[in-house]
What does this fold into?
Amino acid sequence: MNTSNRLKAERNGKNIETGTYTLRGNYMISETQKYMLCKRKPKSNKPADYLIQIQPEEGYISSLYSEVYDGWIDTEQRAEGVYRFDSEQDIYRLEIDRETGQASIEKECI
It folds into this structure.
């Protein structure tokens, strides 16, 4: 994990760290964190993708939004493998690059 970009935000006792993660299948892994990228059943009214934390504690983090939504300042076009999620009142950007086997989480400025 790129410790120079480390930022922790509390969400129900779980830490979200910004930086680079190694992808292994649907898992995002760093030295201290492990997340799993999941899909909901097709008939859900919520976004299809969501993020759960596996280590150091297990638990749901957030839905992953792949489109720009009202209220978010960023007006970028939708991009493959780019998601946003919220934790408390903070918004994060998740980029997944399956070709390089890496993912990154960055906190967005509001």
